[in-house]
Automatic annotation (TrEMBL):
Record's subcellular location: Membrane
InterPro entries with a match to the protein in the record: Syntaxin, T_SNARE_dom
Protein name from the UniProt record: Snare-domain-containing protein
Organism of derivation: Tilletiaria anomala (strain ATCC 24038 / CBS 436.72 / UBC 951)
Membrane spanning residue stretches: 233-253
SMART domains in the cross-refs: t_SNARE
Keywords, sorted A to Z: Coiled coil, Membrane, Transmembrane, Transmembrane helix, Transport
UniProt KW Cell inner membrane keyword: no
Amino acid sequence: MSQVSSPRVAVLHAATLSLVQERSRSISLGLPASTSTNKLIEKNIKTLTSSATELTADLEEKNRLAKAGRIGLEEVREAEDAVTELKTNLENLLHLLGTDEWATEVRSRTNESCLLLAPSQPTSSVPEHSLAEASTSRSTYPVQYHDDVEEDTDVNIRLLRSQKDQMQDQDAQLDKLGASIARQHHLSLQMNEELESQGELLNELDDGVGQTTLRLGRASNQTDRFRRAARDHASSCTIIGLIMILVTLIAIFK
């Protein structure tokens, strides 16, 4: 009997989840999803579906062996947990794909494939006496790995490493950006202090200008009063002068 390696399935699921999240992030930003990413996600989901099929078949075989008393209930429960976990992870991936046309098609094809999986027999149907016979009649089955699963896992491991390197580069750039922002903040504080000092000087200058304006206003008023007084006195002097000239002329010609 062939079965898949749980660590490899876990790595494949983690890589696929990362791709799905990256795709969802791109779509949320209004960017088109990468065709290569879509193909890799679909390929990984097919591999996970195939793994679920194999794990389900393995669970049914273990149920049969447990009924015959050749293995214990513990192995059956472990196989059942593995099938349940993988199917749950697969359902979560399908749910996170989104609602666009491509995601709907992938979800539909995967659901059709999952419908072909034969329902596993519940653990409760296995007789309890198999636990006692497990130590003497347990069979060991060789583990066989599929080349496509191994290849997909290697691809996803490289992809995860690449994404990790990109995240580290982004962290380094963010650190540099944070240091630059800190310097800008320090300069802004210094500029703010300088502006406050200049503001105080401008306020003092404004007060001085206001006082000077008041003094100029008073001087202007005094000048206006002097001008009016001089104009009034000039008229009186002119009248007096004319009278004196008239009197003189009368005295001369009399």
